[in-house]
Amino acid sequence: MEERVLKILEEINEDIITYDGENMYDEGVISSIDVIEIISELENEFDIEIDAMYADEEYFANKESIIELIKKLTA
Description:
The chain is mainly α. The protein has 4 helices and no strands. It has helices at residues 2-12, 14-18, 32-46, 63-74. The chain is globular and about 30 Å long.
């Protein structure tokens, strides 16, 4: 599952994979458009619906937080 998430993230923005800071949204690594695209791709890949409440920088701070969100939503 992690590999599938990482592949999607890399296809959208390679910088997500190498980013090791606290909040890539605040640091300008990703934009709100990227978040929308990530959500759409993850929903399609995992056949889930990601509620709008999760479209927040807390859940998209780095690749680890995105992976944790998908684990939570697919459990």
